Amino acid sequence: MRKNSIKSTRINGEVHRVLAEIIRGEIKDPRINPLTSVVAVEVAPDLKTCKAWISVLGDEKSCEDTLAGLNSAVGFIKNQLARKINLRNTPEIRFIIDQSIAYGVSMSKMIDDVTKDLKDDEETEA
Length: 126
What we know:
The protein is α+β, with helices and mostly antiparallel strands. It has helices at about 5-25, 60-70, 75-85, 100-125; strands spanning about 35-45, 50-55, 90-95. The chain has a three-stranded mixed beta sheet with strand order 1-2-3, covered by helices on one side. Helix 1 crosses helix 3 (about 75-85). It starts with 5 loop residues before the first helix and ends with a helix.
């Protein structure tokens, strides 16, 4: 199965949807932040492994706690995934914290600060 084939795209999308549903509604671990979202999923062509990028709205400790909670619940998540998706193999899931949303917010804030400073400078000169 090629990396960008229709089959792999459909499998990635379905695993992404079901994984988000499981994390949002079925895990009762208090360490997992309720504002946790699955950003992307990449299932290997042999269906043995899966990388899931997650984003957590909160501070660094909240991210670490959520990652620890998800890693401790990986057996339950894999079991639920196997029940909901009929695949030849149920992949081993590896969770990765995705910092791109937080990075984008911080960059946007920096840009807003710079443009605000430029406007203030223009107003004082005029």
